[in-house]
From TrEMBL:
One GO molecular-function entry: 4-galactosyl-N-acetylglucosaminide 3-alpha-L-fucosyltransferase activity
Keyword Disulfide bond: yes
EC numbers: 2.4.1.-
Domain of life from the UniProt record: Eukaryota
Protein family (similarity comment): Belongs to the glycosyltransferase 10 family.
Catalysed reactions listed for this entry: a beta-D-galactosyl-(1->4)-N-acetyl-beta-D-glucosaminyl derivative + GDP-beta-L-fucose = a beta-D-galactosyl-(1->4)-[alpha-L-fucosyl-(1->3)]-N-acetyl-beta-D-glucosaminyl derivative + GDP + H(+); alpha-N-glycoloylneuraminosyl-(2->3)-beta-D-galactosyl-(1->4)-N-acetyl-beta-D-glucosaminyl-(1->3)-beta-D-galactosyl-(1->4)-N-acetyl-beta-D-glucosaminyl-(1->3)-beta-D-galactosyl-(1->4)-beta-D-glucosyl-(1<->1')-ceramide + GDP-beta-L-fucose = alpha-N-glycoloylneuraminosyl-(2->3)-beta-D-galactosyl-(1->4)-N-acetyl-beta-D-glucosaminyl-(1->3)-beta-D-galactosyl-(1->4)-[alpha-L-fucosyl-(1->3)]-N-acetyl-beta-D-glucosaminyl-(1->3)-beta-D-galactosyl-(1->4)-beta-D-glucosyl-(1<->1')-ceramide + GDP + H(+); an alpha-Neu5Ac-(2->3)-beta-D-Gal-(1->4)-beta-D-GlcNAc-(1->3)-beta-D-Gal-(1->4)-beta-D-GlcNAc derivative + GDP-beta-L-fucose = an alpha-Neu5Ac-(2->3)-beta-D-Gal-(1->4)-beta-D-GlcNAc-(1->3)-beta-D-Gal-(1->4)-[alpha-L-Fuc-(1->3)]-beta-D-GlcNAc derivative + GDP + H(+); a neolactoside nLc4Cer + GDP-beta-L-fucose = a neolactoside III(3)-alpha-Fuc-nLc4Cer + GDP + H(+)
Pfam family, one: Glyco_tran_10_N
Primary location recorded for the protein, binned into one broad class: Golgi
Pathway(s) the chain acts in: Protein modification; protein glycosylation; Glycolipid biosynthesis
Subunit and interaction comment: Homodimer.
Gene Ontology CC entries for this record: Golgi cisterna membrane
Name of protein: Fucosyltransferase
Length: 360
């Protein structure tokens, strides 16, 4: 039976995939990006990004005495890049322990899962003392920290804080301060950036992209409906000037997974409105329309922020227009002019898009 589409279900599925794929994201997008307009740090081609990432976990931690307790200090990313030594095939695997995940799924060697050699993923907590890194997902940590490790922490071990929610939807826990060495999140300035999607440069023979058949102008699927959200207020004015096909729990019109794909691909434009506006918070709402051959109309951080991840001619930003009415008139113009509409697909001559770090 197909699951009902909701933003919460989609988010949970993505987080599960992203946790497992976070290191591959470093390899392919952080240290050696294939798309030259990504504004992320890179290392020289002579360095092995795999070796750097694995050795980041193997480096000794610095410690300091605070209130007669030994506290691990955060090590800078710059030091990780400059101090890493090459990994050899004879080195034992680096162990990355996922704690806690809140769900069960297959874990194994990185080579069998992602063709990355020299590491091992596990959720076996008995390996805590041997793990080079332990990753914690913020939303799965209990408020009283009762499900955090109780064993003494090895000095060589790195703790990684992961969070894919925006600050507006993240519960602050001061007890977690000074516990982590590395961060992993959608933020591009994280030690381990895990964006909700990515674009890859095309390889091989270039082919002409065929836009899916369209029989709807504007669509929006939303489950988390709150009147106070910026997106809700924008929509209430926007709908007065243009017809919008709406779906999801927010409109008492749930659709199946298959229907979701069919609906979005059949729309010329999709309202990729974020539930909160924060730096780098660009979620699957923007990437899924790109994957399905639809132009996203985005509401979120400024255009310049989107263009760090997505070509500027692949989307329409609400801030480009003085009012919802002006945006509606622009979409109607594109609907009547096929040549103008096709301009939003020219980027596909050079790139392909992927939703989530683990999407295929």
């Amino acid at each position: 039976m197909a699951h009902q589409i909701s933003s919460r279900v989609c988010r949970n599925v993505f987080i599960t995939v992203a946790v497992l794929m976070c290191f591959s994201v470093i390899f392919y997008t952080y240290y050696m990006p294939t798309v030259n307009w990504l504004k992320w740090p890179t290392v020289s081609r002579s360095d092995s990004c795999r070796d750097i990432c694995i050795n980041a976990l193997k480096m000794p931690n610095q410690t300091e005495r605070v209130n007669n307790t030994c506290t691990v200090k955060i090590t800078s990313t710059t030091n990780l890049l400059t101090q890493a030594e090459p990994v050899t095939k004879t080195d034992p695997d680096t162990i990355l322990l996922m704690w806690p995940l809140g769900r069960k799924f297959y874990l194994g060697s990185c080579s069998s899962l992602y063709n990355i050699h020299g590491c091992r993923l596990t959720d076996n907590r008995s390996l805590f003392n041997n793990a080079h890194g332990v990753m914690f997902h913020h939303r799965d940590i209990h408020g009283n920290l009762s499900n955090m490790p109780t064993l003494p922490r090895p000095l060589f071990q790195k703790w990684i804080w992961m969070n894919m929610e925006s600050p507006s939807r993240t519960v602050k826990r001061s007890a977690l301060n000074n516990l982590f060495n590395l961060t992993a999140s959608y933020r591009l300035d994280s030690d381990i950036p895990v964006p909700y999607g990515r674009l890859l440069e095309k390889t091989g023979e270039k082919t002409t992209y065929r836009i899916p058949h369209k029989n709807k102008l504007v669509c929006w699927i939303v489950s988390n409906w709150k009147a106070k959200y910026n997106r809700t207020q924008y929509y209430e004015t926007f709908k007065q000037h243009i017809r919008i096909e709406t779906y999801g729990r927010g409109f008492s019109k749930n659709i199946s997974n298959e229907d979701y794909l069919n609906v979005v691909s059949s729309c010329k434009f999709y309202l990729a409105f974020e539930n909160s506006i924060h730096k780098d918070y660009i979620t699957e709402k923007a990437y899924r329309p790109l994957v399905l051959g639809t132009v996203p109309v985005v509401l979120g951080p400024p255009r310049e922020n989107y263009e760090k991840l997505i070509p500027g001619n692949a989307f329409i930003h609400v801030d480009d227009f003085s009012s919802p009415k002006e945006l509606a008139e622009h979409l109607k113009l594109l609907d009547q002019n096929e040549d103008l509409y096709r301009q939003y697909f020219t980027w596909r001559e050079h790139y392909v898009t992927r939703e989530g770090s683990g999407s295929v």
